[in-house]
Design brief:
This protein is of the alpha+beta class and 501 residues long. The protein folds into two domains: 134 residues, Beta Barrel (OB fold (Dihydrolipoamide Acetyltransferase, E2P)); 254 residues, Bira Bifunctional Protein, Domain 2 (BirA Bifunctional Protein, domain 2, 2-Layer Sandwich). The chain has 16 helices and 20 strands. It has an eight-stranded mixed beta sheet, with helices on both faces. Strands 1-2-3-5-4 form a five-stranded mixed barrel. A three-stranded antiparallel beta sheet has the order 9-11-10, with no helix packed on it. A hairpin with a 2-residue loop joins β18 and β19. The longest helix has 27 residues. The radius of gyration is 29 Å and the shape is elongated. The mean pLDDT is 93.
């Protein structure tokens, strides 16, 4: 937009703001309060529309935001929108009185009103509330985005994605169907709680501000506590605290964890996100695979469909989930025998296939990078990928009866994305100390995502942690899947956005 048009836009907006402030003054002069304290609502729009036969000719009291107004002399039609939907109003000077009708003609789209009246139908058959009393509840000053609608068809939608995320309140007003995603989100969270609670898990809370970060490979946010004169970190995961609770004698714990990672943003990553982490004593990753499969099937049932359409694929949650070792997938898709490969072999493969790589990558990092690029996108139906490299899994037990370069870890992939990360948790304090010391060396050498060494956590494990299965689920991604959204911003009410200039 050029400077002249931008100035004209600002001038127009300033004029509208000034005109509406003048209307507020006029309304006050007439003796009406444009911002009263409360209003007694007896019915919602949806209730009236769905129960017309019972409510016909009955008096109701509703409240909502004016979404269109058609003034026709001494009578007008309007639609208001409440939390459940829209309903038509018939407003007549003869019914509400001359003063109220004069005040009504000062109203604008976006104002919030309360109406008491009789339920009726117009000659066109539309359910309508015929107002006998009208109360202004909030006078709008800033105009809503203009949306043109005719016969239920939207012609000029409020569709600017960035503006919708940035001003979510406008998005929810003008595109009320957006609310459905967050209603479903709440239902999924509720079903998740019921799932864990019914199986004897205890919901707990652990610190968000931590003296040391850990439990995942990620760069943290740092803040400073003035009274303690100490740097603290916003948690990247709650794993190490939940394991302390297993050591302390809680045998089944879970937490809805708000996590923060100071890393890149894309369609599936936001710097703050919600995870569900849970730990159960005396079980391993085989048990947790069964548990997770049951959980995902339960959520599919909760949302009403075992067949989910997502990213052009039909995901069938009624079938058993596949379980494939990472080694089998490398052999299938890249013709690589990872058990026989060394770091030099991986480097040679990358050179041959013109794949960029860092000469500092270790065995596990080679596997991780190649898997992400060449294999992960091909995993469409629910697939447990099992047995990960030890080098990138410092908190998991070494695979029993197998190559000690691998650990008992699985991730669940659906439609080319990872949804779950789980381990047979490492409870050998000597092995755990050695691995975290190795992570700490990587961090000192410049790996910003390596884990810090946590002596108190090691001491907790030295006290004795039983065999344990642990799982982390990215809740936001799960909700994306079950609501059909391909951007994490669509399932967060207020996603992170770059500052406006």
């Amino acid at each position: 937009m050029d400077e002249q048009n931008l100035n004209e836009k600002h001038s127009t907006l300033e004029n509208i703001l000034e005109q509406r402030k003048e209307k507020i003054a006029k309304i006050r002069e007439m003796g009406f309060d444009p911002f009263p304290y409360s209003y007694a609502v007896t019915h919602k729009s949806k209730t009236i529309l769905e129960n017309y036969d019972e409510l016909e000719e009955k008096t109701v009291s509703i409240a909502g935001r004016l979404m269109n107004i058609r003034v026709m002399g001494k009578a007008s039609f309007a639609h208001i929108q409440d939390g459940d939907g829209r309903i038509q109003l018939y407003i007549s000077k003869n019914d509400i009185g001359e003063e109220s009708y004069t005040m009504f003609k000062l109203l604008d789209i976006g104002d919030i009103i309360g109406v008491e009246g009789i339920v009726m139908k117009t000659r066109t058959g539309e359910t309508t509330v015929k107002a006998s009393n009208l109360t202004l509840l909030t006078k709008n000053i800033r105009p809503l985005p203009i949306v043109k609608e005719k016969d239920g068809v939207i012609y000029d939608a409020f569709a600017d994605k960035e503006l919708r995320y940035r001003k979510r309140y406008l998005d929810l007003i003008v595109n009320p169907e957006v609310k459905d995603t967050f209603v479903k989100r709440a239902a999924i969270i509720r079903a998740t709680r019921e799932f864990f609670d019914s199986r004897g898990y205890l919901e707990v809370e652990t610190p968000v501000l931590q003296p040391l970060y850990g439990g995942a490979n990620a760069r943290p946010f740092i803040t400073h506590h003035n009274s303690l004169d100490q740097d603290l970190y916003l948690r990247i995961a709650d794993e190490l605290y939940l394991k302390r609770l297993i050591v302390g004698g809680f045998e089944k714990v879970y937490e809805f964890s708000r996590n923060f990672r100071n890393e890149g943003m894309d369609r599936s990553h936001n710097p703050e996100f919600t995870a569900i982490e849970f730990y159960e004593a005396y079980v391993d990753y085989f048990y947790m695979m069964d548990f997770i499969e049951e959980y995902f099937k339960t959520i599919a049932e909760t949302t009403g469909n075992m067949l989910v359409e997502y990213r052009g694929a039909t995901i069938d949650f009624s079938k058993p989930f596949e379980r494939k070792p990472m080694s089998e997938l490398f052999a299938e898709y890249l013709k690589i025998d990872i058990a026989a490969y060394t770091e030099k072999d991986f480097a040679d493969w990358c050179k041959k296939n013109k794949k960029e790589f860092d000469p500092k990558w270790n065995y596990g990092q080679f596997l991780d990078k190649l898997f992400d690029e060449y294999i992960e996108p091909k995993l469409i139906q629910p697939t447990f990928v099992i047995d990960y490299p030890k080098a990138i899994s410092p908190l998991a037990k070494v695979k029993r009866d197998g190559d000690d370069r691998f650990v008992e870890r699985f991730e669940l992939f659906i439609c080319g994305s990872e949804y779950v990360n789980a381990f047979s948790e490492l409870n050998d304090p000597l092995d755990q100390r050695e691995r975290l010391e190795g992570q700490d060396r990587l961090r000192v050498e410049g790996d910003e995502e390596a884990q810090a060494f946590d002596e108190d956590f090691i001491q907790a494990i030295e006290t004795g942690m039983p065999p344990t299965g642990g799982v982390g689920i990215g809740l936001d991604r799960l909700i994306m899947l079950f609501t059909g959204h391909t951007s994490i911003k669509d399932v967060l009410l207020f996603p992170a956005m770059r500052s406006e200039k």
